[in-house]
Amino acid sequence: MSEAVNGLPPSSKLRDDQIGRLTDKYFWRTKETVGRFGDRRVTYAVFMRRPVLFTPRLMVDWLQGVARERGVEFDLKLCFEEGDRVGGGEPLVYISGSFYHLVDLETLYLQLLGAPCVAAYNAYVMCCDLPKTAFIAFDARHCAGSEMAELMAYAASVGSKAAQKHAGAVGFIGNATDATAHYFGADKGLGTMPHALIGYAGSTLRAAEMFHETFPEENLTVLIDYYGQEVSDSLAVCRRFPELAAAGRLSVRVDTHGGRFVEGLDTQASYEVLERHSPMAVKQYRTEHELKYLVGTGVSAASIFHLRERLDAAGFNRVKIVASSGFGTTKCEVMASVSAPIDVVGTGSYLPENWAETYATADIVAYDDEPVVKVGREFLLERS
């Protein structure tokens, strides 16, 4: 499970007697005041300021667990189904119940809602842009602890299912850790080798051999950028494992960093590759970032076309290309615009970039079922 904070478990696992230490102090003091002067029934409206995909499950499960522990009931009116697109300012959920028992929970249930809603939206957009490409969630290493990793894995699964529903996308086929694999309908995470194993082995080919000897029944995905020989090492691995290559059980993963070109490319060669496969790609306006994703250093569209050309020319047309390194919404959109031949994307870049956009807000909109809301938030009042 997630790490403890000052001896406490994460908010999604908190017991009732631990909540007071992690909630905002003014909520705890309000709880003490209400306990002295008398409880009232209240209704909270929760909203976000940007378009999101609705991901309420972890928040709902936690609120229901707290209610059971306290021997009370909270009425939760979800305004949308899980995975629905929601506009900025639209109420996501109405939460009704005892003011005394709800007031100290706001800090913690908002933590379980805001960031997943944004991450799910990003994952959805990426999967819709590349509907024929499979995705693997590489979020855990980018998260601030395993509770965040759980939130992000859940978000990716919601975004993926929405893209499958609306765009017929392949979506996310799994993730990198066992702990959150269940969100993708699996028992364990996916993954073969990091760069560290290649350095340990002394060559890309030897790392592939060592992995295959250790896990002979597993499909083989080999990182190919460690020595800057993406094409040469890919072909060497394919020639060493021709049966796996012919059976479609061999993949090469290109993760080249942005400090250099993939083997065999430079700026001019990258333009030439792209001209062969998508001649209109650079004849329209492109931002600097878009041009980098098309013909620049690192994992560009040109580099993927180039690698695909070389694999096919050598007879390895069933070997899959796994692409990683910065595949967020913009990069996926650019890759889609030229139909880059990517079989799988490994990414954690659906995580929110602007954390301020993840802030969910809760306002009371009724006391004892009488509509009351602070000035300027009338749009949150329930409509009959």
Could you explain how this protein is built, in words?
The chain is α/β, with parallel strands linked by helices and 384 residues long. It folds into two domains: 11-116 and 355-380, nicotinate phosphoribosyltransferase (Alpha-Beta Barrel), CATH 3.20.140; 118-347, Alpha-Beta Barrel (TIM Barrel), CATH 3.20.20. It has 14 helices and 13 strands. The protein has helices spanning 25-37, 57-70, 99-102, 106-111, 114-129, 146-167, 195-201, 204-214, 230-240, 242-246, 267-277, 288-295, 301-313, 329-337, and strands at 41-48, 52-53, 75-78, 85-86, 91-98, 134-137, 171-175, 220-223, 250-254, 320-323, 344-347, 360-367, 370-371. The strands form three sheets. It has a six-stranded parallel beta sheet. A five-stranded antiparallel beta sheet has the order 3-5-1-12-13. Helix 6 links the parallel strand 6 and strand 7 (171-175). Helix 5 (114-129) runs parallel beside helix 14 (329-337) and helix 7 (195-201) crosses helix 8. The longest helix has 22 residues, at 146-167. The two termini are 42 Å apart. Residues 1-9 have low confidence and may be disordered.
What is the molecular shape? elongated
Q: What is the CATH superfamily of the largest domain?
A: Aldolase class I
- The level of helicity is 25-40%
- Secondary-structure content class: alpha/beta
| CATH domain fold name of the largest domain | TIM Barrel
In the residues, how many domains can be counted? Answer: 2
The strands making up the biggest β-sheet line up spatially as 7-6-11-10-9-8
Number of strands: 13
What's the helix-strand series? HEEHEEEHHHEHEHHEHHEHHHEHEEE
Gross CATH architecture of the largest domain: Alpha-Beta Barrel
| Cα separation of the termini | 42 Å
Any idea what the radius of gyration is?
25 Å
The number of helical runs is: 14
Give the averaged pLDDT, no decimals: 94
Percent of sequence in beta strands: 15-25%
Q: At the first level of CATH, what is the class of the largest domain?
A: Alpha Beta
Report the biggest beta sheet as strand number plus sense, adding barrel if it closes: 6 strands, parallel
- Indicate the low-confidence ranges by residue numbers: 1-9
